[in-house]
């Protein structure tokens, strides 16, 4: 039997699953992970927390993850409280819950592309009609054009990603404010990469008090180096959190996940110490690529989009043959490299040098 033989929903027929290749190669620079594994001290604390949590695994976890939400509010600052925080298994699940509550059949969502590919995919799986907004040549968002798109389509959900994946582009706060003012529904600012932004780049968190329909999403998968733990979260008005309670599955966040996330937050100083190193490596990578006369998007994230190659697949394969896995994504001709360790970036540069000649 094939997928086509199954009585699945008509709107899922012909769709492709999310599929960044997971290949076992020496240099993995394709999914914007943090290359630094947890320290021995963090692993010890995690093991202790898991042991403690294991003693009560016959019971369901705290359904509302209250302690974790307090810790997340404390981390974010901006005067936020646990009532304004919500957590789930990765920010992908947060995005899914947002679309379950505010999107759905007969409703629509807009994003400004190229942007994070899961926004339209989750829109599809929640039967939310996807509207493709555009970005400028330099991947910034033209605020007048964006406001016009929002006024024309009147989407129920607007996605703004800052810094944007795969381009690395950060959005100025006034652009977000003007789009929120024009939007009839909720506006999601996906800040998965916020910690990597240049110092002085403000977070949309500062806009929350004045904008109750604004939702800021974050993750522990990137700067916090906890992609394997699966912990994403949002900050918004308490009423938005009430909406999440309507769609979340009961006990969605396991005792072990909540415990692991709290340990990581307690170790945040050590974990976030990698951010400075990664930013410096990013800026050096941008400079190196520009010296090779490549087009390179300005990046406020832990990855760099570069091109433009007449045959990007050949470049991607050439790197892979040398043990360097990057991502074939973005507009035609562009490739995206995640920032790894110093040694990994040296391997990337050497491999690309060999291809460019
Ligand atoms: N938002 C953006 C912009 C991302 O790039 C990613 C991960 N690639 C996510 C959300 C989801 O991350 P996670 O589910 O691991 O929190």
TrEMBL record:
EC number: 2.6.1.9
Enzyme class: transferase
Originating organism: Planotetraspora phitsanulokensis
Cofactor dependence: pyridoxal 5'-phosphate
Catalytic activity: L-histidinol phosphate + 2-oxoglutarate = 3-(imidazol-4-yl)-2-oxopropyl phosphate + L-glutamate
Keyword line: Amino-acid biosynthesis, Aminotransferase, Histidine biosynthesis, Pyridoxal phosphate, Transferase
Pathway the protein takes part in: Amino-acid biosynthesis; L-histidine biosynthesis; L-histidine from 5-phospho-alpha-D-ribose 1-diphosphate: step 7/9
Domain Aminotransferase class I/classII large: 27-348
Protein's UniProt name: Histidinol-phosphate aminotransferase
PROSITE patterns the record matches: AA_TRANSFER_CLASS_2
Annotated PANTHER family: HISTIDINOL-PHOSPHATE AMINOTRANSFERASE, HISTIDINOL-PHOSPHATE AMINOTRANSFERASE-RELATED
GO biological process, one term: L-histidine biosynthetic process
Subunit structure: Homodimer.
Pfam families hit by this protein: Aminotran_1_2
Entry-annotated residues carrying N6-(pyridoxal phosphate)lysine: 222
Family label: Belongs to the class-II pyridoxal-phosphate-dependent aminotransferase family. Histidinol-phosphate aminotransferase subfamily.
Bias kind Basic and acidic residues: ranges: 1-14
Region (Disordered): 1-22
Transmembrane portions of the chain: none
GO molecular-function terms, A-Z: histidinol-phosphate transaminase activity; pyridoxal phosphate binding
